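Below is one record:
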Amino acid sequence: MKNIFLITKREYLTQVKKKSFIILTILAPIIMIAFGAFIAVMLKANETQYTVNVIDKGGLFAGKLRSDDKLKYVYVNPASENQLVNSLKDMEETNGLLILAPLQDNRFDMLEKNSRLLVNDKIGFETKQRIVDDLSEVLRQAKIKHLNINEEEIVQLDKNFELKSSNVNDKSQVDTDLDFGVKYGLGMVLMYAVFMFIIIYGVRVMRSVLEEKNNRVVEILISSVKPFELMMGKILGVTLVALTQFSVWITMAILGALFLNTGFSAMKDNLPSGSEQVVEKVDFAQIAGEVSHILLEMNVPVVIAVFLFFFLFGYIFYSSMYAAIGSAVDNETETQQFTLFAIIPLMVGMYGSITIINNPNGPLGFWLSIIPFTSPVAMVARIPFGVPMWEIALSMFLLIMSTFLMVFIAAKVYRVGILMYGNKATMKELWKWIRN
């Protein structure tokens, strides 16, 4: 244990003292924020105010089409229709001509059929959809007036049927769409966090082993410590490096949210036209309260404990595999034929979890969360929906036993492969090392 601790300490300090680690840890969130700001500036720079002349032959739309900084409506005399149509292609400050037919005998279908939009330049899909939405809203109000019904009755007609479901095994639990959405989102976040952690830092373990093997540093280390101790020290050291990096990023994210709380206003500024009114009607405080209530209704200690367990043991399971791969090859090019054995099971677990969330207790969800190769991602995706304790216990037991077995197998490969040079490893060779 002493040697494992010393190797862990050495690996951790070696990694965190690298300039690349410091730069990446500090600059990565800043680069992501800057990139997002750059994209926002690009989108803003690409915006243009389109000017559309409107010929309202029936007067139904008079004064009801509102202009803004993205679209400007200019009402013109219907008598000048022919002149405007002929001169539209030469107009530089006008982008289109909207000709609206009169409404006769309340034939809204004929009004739509006889109306048209002429343009002298390409306009974006969003702009065209904005015009359609504006016209649809005016026609909607006209139809309401024609049918002699008020707005409240229209709201009642448009209201969706709200179906509440309850669990007969837990009568206090009521499943709503928001409830499902929160659990779905939480499951996806937890699953993706485990998946990315294993992939990113498992590869880092492999590269660290490969680097020391190529530099022949391992020959000195192996004379003082056992191969198993060296391998476990590297895995634990990289684990601490990852936790340090995540801690810094989480801290920076929290501070950024506190001091630069402009995300919501920026979101509203970049919403599609017509969506501002919808945003204003949404009670975000109420939704936030309901989301918090749903999260607190979950068995939070179990969710956290299960996430941390599969987060840690799943990483050790796959990092052992990556360490064995790094010891068995001489360069990164040769790692490609072996890393598929680590990536494919994780991909199966991740994409399988996306489908099982609609049926968390189905046979696919059960087996993906029991098999050790996929359980680190599948179980954390299911846990927000509630998983029977015996399934959690069985999955944990199998993952623990499989982790010990994988560490044992990886140690045997590591012991031989770390000192092998110039001999390209094959599956037959690896099996020979494991068997012996």
Notes: Strands lie at 50-56, 71-75, 96-100, 116-119, 165-167, 170-175. The chain is about 70% helix and 5% strand.
